[in-house]
Design a protein that fits this description.
The chain is mostly helical. Helix content is 83%, strand content 0%. It has one domain.
Length: 168
């Protein structure tokens, strides 16, 4: 678990990575996207190891599970890009002094939408795994994803600036 915590810290650092001011928006987006994809790949490898250690799937169950899980990870990855963009925007608004009431309202609205989408995705894939395997195995999947999600959330939250109106 220590390795996973270290890796989450690395993910958090990456999310807050902001390029030099002279980089174009396209370069920034490409660099962040490529780097997040690389980190996501490493993080997913760690998750696979955790899932294998906890779920102890038979060869037959593994074949069913991993097909579903790959689809889940693809969808989760799309959400992660949106989330990273929101976090980067929040941090940047604090850095450049543009975090005001309107920005706070917009960020909160987007955050709630992202959280709902994340829970909806987890519920959808819990159902798919439950249908393909068993309720217990779906519960294991849910527990693993929830715990890892909390770890990532806590790591990110610990590095976020406190919400506050920009000082003038």
């Amino acid at each position: 678990m220590k390795t996973l915590q270290t890796f989450c810290l690395l993910v958090c650092t990456t999310i807050f990575w902001l390029p030099p001011g002279n980089a174009s928006a396209a370069e920034v987006d490409n660099n962040i996207y490529n780097y997040l994809q690389l980190l996501r790949s490493d993080f997913n490898s760690a998750k696979v190891e955790i899932v294998n250690n906890i779920m102890k799937l038979s060869a037959e169950d593994a074949k069913k599970f991993w097909a579903i899980y790959r689809a889940y990870e693809d969808e989760l990855g799309k959400q992660a890009v949106n989330r990273a963009e929101l976090v980067a925007e929040f941090v940047q608004a604090h850095k450049d002094g543009t975090f005001n009431n309107a920005k706070a309202k917009e960020v909160a609205k987007r955050w709630f939408k992202e959280q709902r989408a994340r829970l909806d995705l987890l519920q959808e894939y819990h159902g798919k795994i439950e249908k393909a395997l068993s309720s217990v195995q779906a519960g294991q999947f849910l527990q693993i994803e929830h715990q890892l999600g909390i770890l990532v959330d806590l790591t990110i939250a610990a590095e976020m600036p406190l919400v506050g109106e920009a000082k003038k």
